[in-house]
Specification:
The chain is mainly beta. About 10% of the residues lie in helices and about 40% in strands.
């Protein structure tokens, strides 16, 4: 049974469950079922003696036995197919469908299910199997630096059968270039742009589209643009005075990546004793202020791109400035408003009184003339 060649096809009976055009599609690493279920013509009663599966060689010139089942001798898988295939049914004389347990790309090709019956003869069904692979994809981002020339920002690559397609989902102003190789089943896409700090953190996702996927697969990515820091000093006010406690200067900076190196200096000499620089950029006066603390202080911040510096002139008064109490200021304001209103009323009263006096004198002169 194991080495016999199939007898000529006699054209009786029919095969059930055959796919359209006898073409099958499967995915690599998945289970594949090659259907083969034979039925005699009505009125013909024959017995299936043996079932043999073959894989056609390139060009159809040769073929390899995969698996066979005999109604008495049992089942046998041949050569490299052993452990990779089995019959779907426990009764292969009734349902001769073959199962490839883990499909590989090399399994793509033409298959023949050969049925030997008695007394009707031999019958065969041919199937064509196409094997697709699910895309294996990767995205490689590039760290950019502000001010660089037009360059690659991210590269996306995918391998699959048939060839996948790649696209970019982004609001950035750049350009993509695609390349593909049918031999290796790979496609790549490069996205390039002019780096600006405003692009830092913006979306640059790669979308992989393939017939095996219900929707494009998204490889998420955010652009990284490094740019230098911008130092600023805060915390100082003109009301610093001798004896003031817990005085601090703070060095603040932007930049990407965030600076981790802060350096404080005082113009013309070292930092005063008891003045402590902290790693986060704070300069703490660990004792009450003294007149000797005055001077020009400078903070230098640095990241991997560049450095930036900021200065502040610190003046220390002999004593704190005296400020009017808020309640007194309110009373002064209310009193001033009331005084102004009273003065306005006096002016109005005097003006009205003078006006009436002039009218009365004029009336008296007129009466005297008439008399």
């Amino acid at each position: 049974m194991h080495g016999s060649s199939p007898s000529p096809f006699l054209g009786r009976g029919e095969f059930l469950d055959a796919p359209p055009d006898h073409a099958l599609l499967s995915l690599a690493e998945k289970e594949t079922v090659l259907p083969c279920r034979y039925r005699d013509d009505p009125g013909v009663q024959s017995t299936v003696i043996q079932v043999t599966w073959y894989k056609e060689g390139p060009g159809g010139g040769s073929r390899d036995q995969i698996m066979a089942a005999h109604h008495q001798d049992g089942q046998t898988a041949f050569g490299p197919w052993s452990g990779r295939v089995r019959f779907q049914s426990s009764e292969p004389m009734v349902d001769s469908s073959l199962v490839i347990l883990t499909t590989e790309v090399v399994d793509e090709g033409s298959y023949t299910c050969h049925i030997s019956t008695f007394p009707a003869g031999n019958f065969a069904q041919k199937l064509t199997l196409t094997v697709w692979t699910v895309p294996i994809s990767s995205l490689d981002p590039v760290i950019l630096v502000e001010g660089q020339s037009y360059r690659l920002a991210a590269a996306c690559r995918s391998v699959a059968r048939p060839l996948p397609s790649l696209s970019w989902d982004t609001d950035l102003n750049g350009q993509s270039t695609n390349r593909s190789s049918s031999d290796s089943g790979s496609v790549s896409s490069h996205y390039s742009l002019h780096p600006l700090r405003s692009m830092n953190g913006q979306r640059l996702d790669c979308l992989v589209s393939h017939q095996s996927l219900k929707k494009p697969r998204r490889l998420r990515n955010n652009v990284v643009v490094h740019y230098p820091p911008n130092a600023e000093v805060s915390g100082y006010s003109p009301n610093w005075f001798v004896g003031m406690e817990t005085a601090m200067l703070h060095c603040r900076s932007g930049g990407n990546p965030i600076p981790e190196e802060f350096t404080w200096t005082r113009q013309g000499g070292d930092l005063p004793q008891g003045v402590i620089p902290h790693p986060n950029g704070t300069l703490a006066f660990g004792r009450p202020l003294s007149a000797g603390d005055a001077g020009v202080y400078q903070c230098v911040v640095r990241n991997v791109v560049d450095s930036s510096k900021a200065t502040v002139e610190l003046k220390v008064a002999d004593e704190p400035q005296k400020e009017a109490e808020p309640d007194n200021l309110l009373l002064i304001g209310v009193g001033g408003a009331a005084g102004g209103l009273l003065l306005l009323m006096l002016v109005v009263i005097v003006s009205v009184t003078c006006h009436h006096k002039r009218r009365n004198k004029k009336l008296e002169r007129q009466l005297t003339v008439k008399e």
